[in-house]
Structures are given as C-alpha cells and as structure tokens.
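To whoever is covering the structure queue this week,

Two jobs came back overnight. Logging them here so there's a record in the thread.

Job A:
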Amino acid sequence: MEESLKLSQKQQLRQTLSPVQVQYVRLLEMGTAEIEDEVKRELDENPALEASSDDQIRQADAQGETAEQMMLADYRSEDDVPSYRLEAKNGSSDRTFFDPDTRQEGETLMAYLTEQLRQSGMDGSELETAVFLAGSLDGNGYLTRALPLVREDLEVQTGVEVTMDEMRSALDTLRRLDPAGVGASDLRDCLLLQLRRLDPQQDVADATEIITHYFDLFAGMKMDRLMTAASLSESRLKAAIDLIRTLNPKPGATFEGSDSEAEIRAAHITPDFYVETDGDRLLLSMPDNLPHLAIEQSFDVDNIEISPRMPRRDADALAFLKSRRDSAADFIKAIGMRRETLWRVMTAIMRHQRDFFLTDDELKLRPMILKDIAAATGYDISVVSRATQGKYVATAGGVYPLKFFFNERPKSDSDASSLEIMAALRHLVDQENKRSPLSDEALTAALKAQGYDIARRTVAKYREKAGIPVARLRTLHGI
C-alpha cells in the first residue's frame, strides 16, 4: 500500500462575535427592569466601572427625588402631564382605567387553608393529617393523587399513622373550607362542591343534575341532547348553564405561588417607550433611569506598558487593571449600542404604524412583519426580534407590547391586517343567529363578500386566534 502526503488549500468564511457583540445581544433582550438590575450588578462586580456623579444625579440624591419625579418635573404644571404618566390603561381607548399592581408577596393557598383548619378546633394527628392533605393540593386546589398514596406519604414523612377512615374524614373537612371547590379530585367534583353550597333553587338543582349525570354532554356542548336527556326546557337549561359558568374551575389559582392568569396580570409592566401626539406629530421618548456610566480614573493605565523588567506582582496588577478597564469599556459600549438599537427600531415601528399612534384605533394597524422593520433599520431580523421581545410602549390609549404591532398579511397582495380581519370576524359572529351559528365555510363566504378574499383554513386560524369557538360550541350563547 502506498502512502502519500498532500498539501491542499481550502477557503472558508467564518463570522465570530466579539465580546462586545455577545454582550450587546444579551443586553438587547432585557427589559427595563432587567437592564437596571444588570447595571447595578455590573457596578458592584467591576471596580473599574462607576456611575458618573453629574449635577443632575447629585441634585436628585440631595433632594431625594425618584426618577419618576424627575420625569414629571419636566412639565410646566400638573395640568400639562399626560394622563398615561399618572395612570395606566390596558387595551383600547374606550376601556376604563385600572391601577397596575406590582407582584407582592401574598397569602398562599396552603397558609389560608392551614389557618382555617387551626380555627376549626382540630388538634393532634387529625390536624396534622388535614394540613398534610392541604399541602398535597396542586396549584388549582385539586387533590389529584389517590388517597392511599397520600396516606403512605404522610406516614413516611411525618411518622403519623392514620386509618383510611381518618384520611377520608380529614379530606371531608378540607373540602368544606374556603374557597369553595378546594380539595376536589377533578373539574366535575369541583363544580359539584360549589353547587352544594348554594341556596336550593331551581337553577341550582338543574345545574347539579347536569353536572352529576350529564357531565360528558355538557363538556361536549351537545345542548340539544342535553336538553332532551335532562328533560329541561330551553329557559331552564339556559339558566342552569349560566349558573355553571359563574363557578370557579380553579379555586386555588388565585393565591400566591400559582401560575394563574390573575397572578400574571398582577405583574408590573414598566414601559420602555412613550409616544405622545402633538397635533399630527408623534413624539417618542425613552425613560432612562440608568446612571451615566464611566471608567474609574484609577483604572486609566493606557500609558503604562507591561515590560519584561517589571516585577511579577506589578505586571499581574497592571494586567488586572487593564482587563477590568476593558470589561468596563465593553459594557458601556454595549449599553450605548442597545439604546441606539431600541430607539431606531421603535422609530421605525412608529413611522410604519403612524395612523394607529395618532388614533389608538386597532383597526388602523397596518400589516407589518419583522422583515419590514429590519429593512427600515438595516438590522438583521434576529436583532429586531430581540429588540421587540418583552418591550412595551405607553400611548394615550394604553400600554402595548411591541409584538402587538406585528401582524401578517393574509395574502401577499392584501393591504388588510390580521387584526382587521379578526375584528370583521368578531362582528359576523356577534350578528349571527345563535340557533344556527355560521360555520367556517359560511364565515369565509361572508368575509369574501366584504372584500377579504382568504381561504377557509385562514379563517379558522384567525377564529382560534380571536378566541372564538367553533360553531357547535357557540350554540351555548344562544340558548
């Protein structure tokens, strides 16, 4: 076998990110609160980085003013302050104001139930068993594990030995506590627990009958079969269904520590941008609560070079000073790049959606995708995506996530936005005959008559996106 050595050339194109670019990409994804925490952390960890103490910062420290107070001080009088800087609205301009709550530590479901158990007069192993059961509930307040398994866990973890009758007694006590429905094994059980606490009336009796014996028909929204099987008139069935819909399917989800929608809505949102109108002009501002960053003077060692004759200790110290100085300089540069990118991206969005920002009318939103903003700014699509992720803008009509302004064209040659079509879709559903709701095919034909020439599968996608159930399930509203 012959062996030979060959020398060949190969051309490759590689792109590597510098440390500044890597840090810039990471900072770009952060929201206002996150970037403030990141700056504080960097100031604590890097001695070469300092917050510049200019006249404005010293004045704020001396007077004890917050960043928000300084922002409001820019206006001549209290009457000149836009309402959205003092209040917050969520959604369209015709909705009422609400006070945004911060996420605060509140009472957990476990603590709430434990307090009720202690006040019930229980003690000893009986109380310990009931408390252990309360701790075994999931975030919705359900006991999804089998009672014998919970009994085994109780014995292993606490050493308390109880009979199954004692376990059932403790569970019955737990199921009588507030909130109603807690301790249920499933949704059907949860609804029944709540119905049993209501005053005995006709609609309560009918609702109990439906959930007890015809839950599958109810869950499938098969109203005609349900009316026949339960021998109910149309009015009585409607009253029973309306009552069931007032019940809470997740009684434990409103407490701290759950992943409920209520807890998510309670999270405080800090706008990254403010857009104001001055006649036909749009004014963009970015609240900057970050301190002015600079490099600490003692780390200015550009004129000192490491030489072979320099003692090892001095060389190591100088290398440390330069590394910290370079790290601080990179961080300052990345912060500046982040701010410039956010400003350019928001400016492009504001220009593209000018009609919306002037009117706060969602129907004025134009079709816009990431590619449009990337073309307007010169950034890559991935940069635009990071710059808009988790960012919010406050207008006179409310606080909106930047992702809200991105909506696709149903067809490449269409000027209608997906939001406009969903609004037309909602209007058709609101006006339909609830005894014979429009199918997706009928909705497609109705939209085409209004000038929206889209496919049936697109209509189905927008219907689901708008939270509109299929025709079979919409009969519930017309009973």
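Job B:
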Amino acid sequence: MKYKHKSPLPLFDTLKVMLEEKHEKKPSVLARIESDAPDNALSDYNVACEFLCSYRGSADTFAAYRREVERLLQWAWFVAGISLKDIKRAEIDDFLAFCQHPPKEWIGLKTVARFVDQHGTRVINRDWRPFVSKVGKVEYSAEQSPDISNWALSQKSFQAIFSILSSFFNFLIQEEYSDVNPIALIRQKSKFIRKKQSEKIRRLSDLQWEYVIETAEIMADQDAGLHERTLFVMNALYGMYLRISELTQSERWYPKMGDFQLDMDGNWWFITVGKGNKERSVSVSDEMLSALKRYRTYRNLSLLPYPGEQTPLIPKTRGAGGISSTRQIRNIVQACFDAAVKRMIEDGFTEDSERLKTATVHWLRHTGISDDVKRRPREHVRDDAGHGSSAITDKYIDVELRERHASARKKSIKPS
C-alpha cells in the first residue's frame, strides 16, 4: 500500500503535555487517525500513549521510546495499512527494511518539535519528520549541510529499535493487547545489527585532556564570573565520571551541594541518580574535593557543603535554580573544547586538535574511567561509574589492545 501522507505528521507531544492532556487527545491527531488509519488504530494510539506515559520518570527515556513507537505506528498505519494487532515477524522484517531506506519525504534535515504553540493552542509542526539526517560535529562547524541522498540508519539506531520495540510488545502482551512479541521471533538479527569483536571506547588522549583541563583553568582565571562554573563542570565530568544528565535538574533529579556528603570515616561521597533512575555513591578524590572548594569559594559559600544543603550544584546564569537543559551543559563543555583546540593548533599539535574537534561531553566520562581503571581496582571503578557489571568496566582497559598492536607493528609483508 502506498503511504497516504508524503510528509508524515506527528502523533505524540512532549511528556509534560501528554500527562496534562490525560484522556483528551488532540483533535487534529484523532481526525487523521479516524480518516486515514486502519481499524483498531485508535486503540493502538491509546495503548501506545499509556506505554509512553509509563516512562514519566525519565524525559530522555520517554523521548527515545516515543521516537521508535511513533515510527512503527506511522509505518503500520500509513504504509502497511495494518494495526499493531496484525504485526508478526514478517511485518517486523518489512518495517526494518523500510527503516533502512525510508522515502525522502520521511527524512528531515534538522530536529524540530513535533507540536508548536499557536495562539494558545498546540498545533502540528509540518516540518517534523520521523527520520533526521545529520552531520558530524566537524562538518557542522564547517557549516556543511546534511545530505538526504546519503542517509543511512546507524547500527546504534537499529539496536535501539530492537530493544525499545521489544519492550513495547512485551507491554502489549501484558495488557492483553497482543499475543506475540515479533521482535523476539527474529532469528537473523545479524542482517541488521553487526556484531563487534570489541567496542572502542571514545576518549581523550592524555595530551588532549591535559590541554582541555589547562584551558578550563585559564578561562576561569581570565573570567571567573563566566568560567569558574566551566572549570567545575569539566572536573566533575572527568573526576566523578558523571553523565550530562547527572548535572542537570529534572523532575526526577535535582543536583545540589548537599549531595556531597561526609561519612563517619571522614570520606566524601557524591550521591547522584543516573541511568535507569538508579542512585549511586561516587567516591570523591582529594583533587575533586579541592576543585569543589575552589568553586564554592568563588560562589561565596562555605568551604565545604553542610548536610542537607539545597544550593543548586550548577546554577543558571540568569534566574533561580539549577541548569535544567543538557544543551546548556553541552555548550559549556564545547566552548572549552573549542578553546583547547585553538591552543593545540597554536602549539603545533594539529593532528590531535582535529581529533579533539570530534569529541563530545560523554568522552569526559569515558576518559575519567579509562584513566582510573589503570590504577584502581576495577570493582571500585565499576561501582563509582554505576556499571551493571565488571564486563562493562573491562571495555575501558586498553592494555591488551596496546600489546596486540605492538606485537603487530614490526610484522613483515614481504617474505624475509
């Protein structure tokens, strides 16, 4: 069946709006479902809303699940002309093949909101698309535009499809809306997901990290009002392996100074809530404690936090409260990366500076873990990082890779 809408229209709003709407769905969405979607589509939509709203504890998780469920429903209703109840293994095979090569009309050039406010009403944003073509950080900095003709779904995206839709169909089974999980029936997942021998951890080199942290210190010395916060953010991301979400305020997490806590033995810990809404304690090193003291001194606070202190950990520059946008943290880190790149180029480290241009915020967590696992018991690093198993921590041990490459360095091609 040919899809009825060349440019798909969005189905699900933000988590906040969906929770406020409760059972009152948008008339524009309902009208489209009733006019163009197959039988049972409205029931599909309602159960999908229940599933998505069950992830109200994490906005990031909700966004990821919304993306995959929305793509599936768009394809099922307007391409295959079927309901969720009709999807079996063969249909999932077709859907995955569709995701590999969606119509150009389904691919956008930038991420946009699904709905926008217009005269007090939430209306459909017709620029939204289920798939988005993007360019890397270096290409974006060079003002290169995405190319739809070269678009391809990444391996990471395919992994998300399998993981998220499997959870979705398990939910449908529990709700007695479906009797099968078609994702679990796909035996040849290798057609879509390549198995890796080992996963290379993306991290900064020793030289790059040295330039980055020195740059942060220089920036703080030159403009404390703007960059003492930058220096503390860089120290926290590296020194405590924090994720960007663990520095930002959300409905489930409010990072504050009182999360630094002193135990009966005189040791400092940082209590955070991370991936999977799991709370963990991170051991605070002496240097990290010194970084905290410097930051608090700049903010005219006591040298160390007191029990129950509610002062925001990373405050907004304007207004009250802590930073609530991960984008703001990314901008803080990126400004430091950019300044470090400039210094490296000036000092003649051109190749290293080019690699630093591709770095993201999460590389700081990877770098901190990779550096620590060389000298600390891996179980200690595992618990500080919040890894579910030591096998995950083992990925950060690169000694074997170095030895493997060293043994291959002088092997000959021509016969001796």
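Note for Job B: The first strand starts at residue 107 and ends at 108.

Please reply-all if you pick these up so we don't duplicate work.
Q.
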